Amino acid sequence: MKKSDVIPEKRCRIVVWNIAWRRLVSPAGAKIRARIDRLRPDVICVTEGHTDFFPRRGEMVAAVADYGYSPQPGRRKVMLWSRQPWSAVDRLGDRQMPTGRFVVGETQTPLGPVRMAGLCIPWSHAHVATGRRDRKIWQDHQTYLFGLEHFLGRESFEIPTILAGDFNQTIPRSRAPMPLYEQLIATLAPSFNVATAGQLAKFKKPPIDHLAATTELAAASIRPIPNLERSGKQLSDHIGLCIDMVRA
Fold it and tell me: d(Cα 118, Cα 4) in Å, to the nearest integer?
């Protein structure tokens, strides 16, 4: 077979990034969007962003606005964007999950139909010293994991499924309490492989933003999207992820 006869492998490019509430109209937000645009992703998962961040082409779905803190126009804890329309959208997941941190839908990709869930698992101090101030450290994080486990337990996974977003834990564990790390792994293990686990090439430190997928899909490449300007100024406190998914 000639090299020219080889059929290129189809890939779905996914960007996952917590952009730390940067607005598109701000210098930092504009630079983040420019870095994403240059990658030409098929699907984007943004956490801690605004609904006007995405390109006009394509379609965006977002979690509900109420995530337990004082509402601000356009703010969403998690949003998904695709070049193609979304269907079967669910913004609840499970009643046990803290609101405003989940959205799931189905969309067409270069790999065919994919069901994708955007997650923003609460950080350790959610509603401890700010917000409602009625939680203990890691309490909302644990509650979310229980709800996510219930949601996934009801899913049939008839089409390839992806979980992406801010998991607020490194994999392997770094600072999360061992029981919560084990709970996260147990929640994912029955059906999902975590593409972003372990020491990733070209990453200076393990990410807390992740992508996990059912076994029909695999990561062909994972690369960081720098969160610093050339001057060293920070665009976001999270490094972005550019992940090319293929059929396993």
Answer: 38
pLDDT tens digit sequence for 24-78: 999 999 999 999 999 999 999 999 999 999 988 999 999 999 999 988 899 999 9
Domain spans of the chain, in order of start: 8-247
Cβ distance 122 to 184 under 8 Å?
no
The pTM (predicted TM-score) of the whole model is: 0.95
189: left (phi over 0), alpha (psi -120 to 50) or beta: alpha
Determine the topology of domain 8-247 in CATH. Answer: Deoxyribonuclease I; Chain A (3.60.10)
CB-based contacts of 33-41 (< 8 A; 24+ apart in sequence): 35/225, 35/226, 35/240, 36/225, 36/240, 39/13, 39/15, 39/225, 39/242, 40/13, 41/13, 41/14, 41/15, 41/242
CA separation, residue 93 to residues 89, 105, 146, 233 (Å): 10, 11, 11, 37
